[in-house]
Amino acid sequence: MNWGYGVNLRGNIQLSKETNKLTILDLIRKSKTPISRADITRITGLTNPTISSMVAELMEENLVVEVGLGETIVGRRPILLDFNPGGRAIAGVVIDYPGVTIGITDLGGKILVKRPIDVNLAGGARPEVILQKIGQELKAFIEEWEMNGPKIWGTGVALTGGVNGRTGICIESRSLNWINVPVKELLEPWARPPLHVANNIRCMILGEKWFGVAQDEKDIVGIRFGKRVGSGIIIDDNILEGSRGMAGEIGHLTVDPNGIECFCGNRGCLRNYVTEDSILARLHLLAEGGDEQAKLLLTKLKSIQPGFMLKFLKRIAEDGHELSERIISDLISNLGFAIANLIKSFNPTMVVLLNEDRSFAESLAEEVILKVDPLVELLSNLSVNIVAGQLGEDAHMVGASALALDSIFKTSMV
Ligand SMILES: [Zn+2]
Questions:
Q1: What is the spatial distance between Cα 86 and Cα 97, in angstroms, rounded to a whole number?
Q2: Is the predicted pLDDT of residue 65 greater than 80, yes or no?
Q3: How much is the pLDDT for 2?
Q4: What's the domain range around 365?
């Protein structure tokens, strides 16, 4: 069996017992098949008695279970161990204009319960007031859960806007109208520690890495389009933050210097071609100029749920609706330009298309690949897969959970 970890903990006796225990748990968790105590000894270099006592503790905590006997050529068949994702749970908070959702997942990224909370982000209330209300709801929710469910092991918060993940400060969120809001500090008293806050696109791509399409990758770029635009970049298993936590904010990346005028003062910014708001603004401009097709389309779009507008446009484009054909063609071309630039900048092995509607992202993947291929052709040694995300609309909550788990397991040595 090739573990590819090359880890040997024998030389690390100064590591705390908790770190060793977490390392063993992480090894069991990452193993695609159940694993024996002897396997763990061989991989970690720790002694048999240490492994035995730590596995016993992990079993007592219900994080590891015995699942039967393995094969052996000689001697006793070894008892196999497996990770129990139901042993603890993670609390998640998704703050994504216009609403807030709180939820609980197991350690395998399965959403066990989630519900929207009654807080109006559009009402103009101060962020401290909003976050206090979220905190109160979260505390009650966690206490109610823990009366019967497994203990909460940590809390992840996925927030729309620029967040410095190291400090948990929301630097700027245009849709929430927040600037320099200490989200972590304000929510921490109400939550189960550790609490981590990140931009929701970073959470989405972490979710794909932990539980979705990118589980075997270390260098990943996720690009979100539809309701919002942005990217999440993971290099060597670590989320890229940038100096103020704004890395990956590619909404104003220039994809067409002569393109549509953007509110930032430049032309041809990516957001104008790939977000619903911008496409609606473009249609309004056309309608004001007397474009009848744009007027009709705007009426039809009123009944479409946010997050699903692009899918609708693609469907009618396929039926020959000319204006939608142009919009979808611009979407694909400009996503292609942005992805090619991200590939050249970060050299990932995988690019994940992130959209609330998984089947829509899947339906675009092939055409996006056709756009990207010639743009990176001369760099064919970059070899990268472009795929649709697997988590769809669950990506935010599962991503918040992945954010908490990523921090918990960061101290593991594997
Ligand atoms: Zn712009």
A1: 31
A2: yes
A3: 36
A4: 220-390
